Amino acid sequence: MTSPASAPFDPAPSPKVVVAPDSFKSTATAAEAAEWLAEGVRSVIRDAQIVLTPMADGGEGTSALFEGERVRLPTTTAAGRLTEAEYTYHAATKTAYIDVSAASGLPAVQDDPVPLTGDTYGTGVLIADAQTRGAERIVLGLGGTATNDGGTGILVALGVNPLDQAGYQLTPGGGALEHLASFDTAKVNVPAGAVEWVLLTDTTAPATGPEGAAHVFAPQKGAADADVEVLDRGLARLCEVADVDPATPGLGAAGGVGIGITWLSTMLHGDASHVHVLPGARVVAESNWLTEHIDGAALVITGEGRYDGQTGTGKVASVVGELAREAGAVFAVAAGRFDEQPADGTIAVVLPETDDVREQLIQAGAEIAVAYLNTSTVQG
Q: How would you classify this enzyme at the top EC level (predicted)?
C-alpha cells in the first residue's frame, strides 16, 4: 500500500489551507506544530497555499505570540523552587504579555504536584518586573497552571499579605484559603497593582462549585477528592473576603487567579473597571488576523494535545472551528487523543503512536490532507 506522504495529489485550483494549532504542552510550540502539520499537508497537496497562524488561548506559549522584547529573569516555580521564566514586553504600547504558566505552570512540578501548597508568587515577580520596565498594561494568560491559590501568591509578591483570624500570614497555596480573614496592604506595590489588567481565559468556568476551578481543574493538578473540597471552600472564602462574585465566568481559570487580581485592582481604584476578563483564543485570533487568514480558505487545521469536554469552553480548537465553519471551510483537528467527538463534518485525526513529535504531526497533516481530498471529491 502506498503511504499518504508518498502519493502526492495536485487538485486544481490550489486550495488555501490555514494551519492554526495550539502548542502541544512541553513537546511542540504552536509555531513548530503549525510548521510540521503544514509539512504533512504539502507532502500530499504539493501546491497548497498554506498560511501558518500559530494559536494560543491564554495557556502555555500565549505571550510568545505577541510582538515585543522577550524578557527572561529568575523567579520561582509553584513549589517555590528557583527557576527562570520569560515574558514579552512591548515598549511602544507599554504592555507586558505574561503567561501564568511560565513561572507557575504544571510541567515544573508534574513529578511532585503541589495542589494545596502551590502558589503564583513567581508570576507576581514577573508582573513587578514588567511594571518597573514601564508596563502600564498587563495581559495575563491564564492557563496551564499548577496552582489553586486564587492569585494570592501574586498578591504576596506585590506586597499584600493574606491573614488569618489571629492576624498571622497564611501559608502559601489554596489549601490555607479557607482560614482567610483579611489582607494586610501596608506594603502594597501600588504602581504594579494599579495597571490595566487584561486576563485571557481558556475557560468560562466560575470560581467555585461543581463547574468551578477546584472541581474541574484541581484533579489535573494532583488534587485528591478531599483536596478538591478544601480548595473549593478556600476559593469560596477568598471570594467572600474579596467581595468578588464567584459565579463570574472565567474566574475559575488558572486556579482562580482573577479573584486576587480583581480584588487588588478594586481596592486601588475603587471599582473593577481596570480588570478585563476576555476569552484568550478570541483575543489571540484577533491579534494574529486569523479571521482574515481564514477568509477564502478551503481547509482549516488546528491541533491540541487532548480534545475533551473542556475544549468547547474556550480552547483553541473550539474557536478555530467556529471561525472555519463561519467561513464555509472544511475543519480538521489533530489531537493526541479524543475524549469527545468534534462536531459533525470535522476531520478528526489522532496522532500516530511514535516518540517523535515532529513525525507525529507530519503524518497527521498528511492524513488530514488525504481526508480533505476525499471529502472534496465526494462533495464534487
A: transferase
334/270 Cα distance (integer angstroms): 46
**Pairwise CA distance, residues 144 & 25, whole Å:** 9
- Domain map (residue ranges) of the chain: 16-53+289-379, 62-281
The pTM assigned to this predicted structure is 0.88
- Per the CB < 8 A criterion, the answer to whether 216 and 224 are in contact is no
Alpha helices per DSSP H over the chain: 30-44, 100-104, 121-132, 152-157, 190-193, 225-242, 257-269, 280-287, 290-294, 316-326, 357-379
Q: Residue 8: its pLDDT value, please?
A: 52
For 173, the grid coordinates are 497555596
How many C-beta atoms lie closer than 10 Å to residue 282's C-beta? 18
Higher confidence at residue 26 or residue 353? 353
Q: Which fold has domain 16-53+289-379?
A: Rossmann fold (3.40.50)
Give the model confidence (pLDDT) of 60-102 as tens digits.
899 999 999 999 999 999 999 999 999 999 999 999 999 999 9
Domain 62-281 is classified in which CATH homologous superfamily?
Glycerate kinase, domain 2 (3.90.1510.10)
Q: Are 57 and 143 in contact (CB under 8 A)?
A: yes
How many whole angstroms separate alpha carbon 70 and alpha carbon 356?
A: 28
Element (H, E) at 114: none
Q: What single-letter DSSP state applies at residue 312?
A: G
Rg (CA), the chain: 22
